[in-house]
Amino acid sequence: MRRSLAGRVLCVSVSAMLTGLLVLGLSRFPQINVATVALLLILAILCISMWGPAEAFVATLVAVAGFDYFVLPRAGVEFDRFHQILTLVAFIVTALATGQVTSRMKQYKEETEALHKLGNAILDSEDVESTLDRLTCFIADIFGADEAAIYDDPTGRIFRSGSPSSVISDVKLRLAALEGKCFIRPRSGIFIVPISRSGTVAGSLGIAGDALSKGLVDQIAERAGVGIAKAHAAEKEMAAEVARRTDDLKSAVLDALVHEIKSPLASMHLAVTTLLSQYRGTEAQQQEILGLIKRDMDRLNRGIDEAVRTGQIESGEFPLKKRPHGVNEIVFQSLEDAAHLLQDRLVRTEIAEGLPMADCDETMISRVLKLLLDNAAKYSPASSPVTVSGRAVDGAIVISVSTFGGILTENERESIFEKYYRGSNARSAGIPGTGLGLASARSIVEAHGGKIWVLSEPDRGNTFQFTLPVAEETPDECHTSYGRG
User: Fold this and answer.
1) CA 216, CA 125: separation in Å to the nearest integer?
2) What angle in degrees, to the nearest 10, is found between the helix axes of 128-142 and 214-276?
3) Tens of pLDDT along 433-467?
4) Nearest to 369 by CA among 478, 268, 260
5) Lesser CB count within 10 Å: N end or C end of the chain?
6) Strand 200-208's sheet: what is its strand order?
7) pTM for the predicted model, two decimal places
């Protein structure tokens, strides 16, 4: 929006030279009407005024002098005739007025484009601090200001960009926000104005630059207020989303606990009923039943441990204990814990060599895997093998659990992770379940910043996949694949 002094002098000189050449050229054609010459000169000044008011003014002086000397009858500077004086005055007024209007239109266009750029620059509002920091940089860059500063009243912080030798006073920035008034020094090109947000003063804006006007600075401050308001709204929305995710995670963990505790309770109830009946079996059979009860009690004990963590959820934010974990370690531990679910099934593992470590809460991700393995055991034929795989894809770790079971429709694939949803096959086959397991798995995965989905193909069965972020640490060599028949 600004040119250097040398650039201005050059533009003024070129405009004067072009106007003079045009007058000389038109004077060579005496058959051209005087009024036509005047209109052509005005048109030339109109075009030159696009460069600026100074260029238009100098071009007007050259055009008036040349028009009077070379074009009007009786060459020479003579003001004794009324119509000549009237023509010259009209020409000067018309040329200057036209040049001024054109110059203002150009300035308005430049300011509008700059304000539009500023508006686009603040569309992607993030947190308030980064938005204010970016705003000062955008303002200084887009409007060619020597310095830009924003005072944020809620935090009391001042954000600056531009010249390291500050000319915008911290005290006046605070006073402008406190008292809601402007501090303007036109000769120095320093403007300090309040910033309003939702009808209240939320801070102040300071700009230093000789190509600025009070009206333009007010427009900048208005857009800055919009940007700050958007940033505050985005910050509140993010806080609400975090709170929502925390609530979802609370429910997901509690649902998962219920889902896991009900099974051992049912098994223990059956075992105790058997021991109390008259058909208790032999001593060896009784020992086997007691062993089953102990196993289920251990599962319940682990559930109680998880309940302690659930209590931590109720106190505020869910404390995911994320640290680097090897995928092999998580998969093998999950398979061991889920051995009673898979029974005599063939289990294959396909963990890629050199797979990076996952940044996750091992207990929670093991729970996700156990839920998927439980789902695989319930909804696939007993003869169907289960394949657990892990690989790196696009900077993330993808873990998959595959079985040959009933093929899911497109609608089922979209709904299967919703709470309480159960597929048509499960309902028709009378398979027990609450429809909470996969919903809990999704919430836990999303709390880690990952995604979970299912692929269903007639020739490959169902494959549940979820992603985990890669840890910064580099893992040792991955373990060899693991199989169980």
Assistant:
1) 22
2) 150
3) 556 678 778 888 888 889 999 998 877 788 999 99
4) 260
5) C
6) 157-162, 147-152, 200-208, 190-197, 183-185
7) 0.42
